Amino acid sequence: MSRGKLLQIKRRIGATQSLKKITKAMEMVSTAQIKKVEKRLEVVREFLNETKNIVSQVHFEVEHPFVTGNGQSALIVIGTDMGLCGSFPSEISRAAINLDRRENFDQIYVVGAKIAPSFKKNSKVARIYEYEYEIPTFDFTQLLVTDMLSNNVAKTRVVYGKFKNKLAQIPDVFTLTPFNEQKNNEYGDRYEFEPVGADFQVKLIEFYATSVLFSLAFETKISELYARQNSMRNATENAEDVVKQLTIDYNKVRQASITQELIEIVTGADALKER
User: Fold this and answer.
1) Among 10, 53, 57, residue whose Cα is nearest residue 254
2) What is the pLDDT of residue 110?
3) Which among 10, 62, 131, 205 counts the fewest CB atoms within 10 Å?
4) Which residues of the chain are modeled with pLDDT < 70?
5) So what's the pLDDT on residue 190?
6) What's the DSSP call for residue 118?
7) What gap in Å lies between CA 27 and CA 234, rounded to an integer?
């Protein structure tokens, strides 16, 4: 009986150690990806700030739905394609569903295969984007804006993963459109626009919306990577604790087995003496 139990514990120790190697490797992969994405995120943030500065110096006179707000309302949910990042994807889904219950959007656009199942039965879903990118691309967010405009979307809210710090990544809500004109004189008259007609304004409005979505997608991506790194680190630490406890149990069972064998030997020896 004790030998069978020892074998069972030994197998569990081996399986847990194998799992620990996998989680440790995935943690290291996430760390490498974080370094790569963080460098790009800095550039994306600078790019967005510059875009905001350009937009702040233009007085929009064109009748565009992203400015007037005349059209349908939409919810964009930016999630993840991959799992193993704890409760991060489900928290984004839950935040988006609760927001839709409060504001009752006309359309929903879902980005990410991991959160897609939460919305597939929702009749308001206009499109689900799965495995569109490993790292966010400007082309993808352009596609998203094009789809919105073709469906007469004017008022847009975005649920995405906000990066607070290395240990905290939370769902947040951003109002994309209609956007209000905010004058920014930080750079003075840095830009001169020619021509300033309707075509230029339409392109700038759509470029700005695309740039914001690009930045939010990157923000969600870095949050996903840190969530996965933290999740894999916790899994590795839990595996180490399990191995330690199983090793203690193994030694206890082994010691009990040895003690039992010694008792049997001594008992047998005493019985022989009595004869």
Assistant:
1) 10
2) 97
3) 131
4) 1-2, 180-196, 268-275
5) 53
6) G
7) 10
What's the token pair of residue 182? 């905010």
Q: What is the pLDDT of residue 25?
A: 92
- Other CB atoms within a 10 A radius of the CB of residue 134 amount to 11
> CA 155, CA 114: separation in Å to the nearest integer?
26
pLDDT of 55: 85
Across 219-231, b (16+ Cβ under 10 Å) vs e yields bbbbbbbbbbbbb
Could you tell me if 230 and 163 are in contact, meaning their C-beta atoms sit under 8 angstroms apart?
Answer: no
138: burial class by Cβ within 10 Å (0-12, 13-18, 19+)? middle
pLDDT at 56: 82
Identity at 6, one-letter amino acid code: L
Backbone conformation region of residue 105, classed left if phi is above 0, alpha if psi is from -120 to 50, else beta: beta
The tokens describing 216, both together, are 């939010």
To the question of domain 23-231 being in CATH 3.40.50.360, the answer is no
Do 17 and 239 touch, CB atoms closer than 8 A? yes
Q: How many CB atoms lie within 10 A of CB 2?
A: 13
Does residue 105 sit in helix, strand or coil? Answer: coil
pLDDT at 74: 97
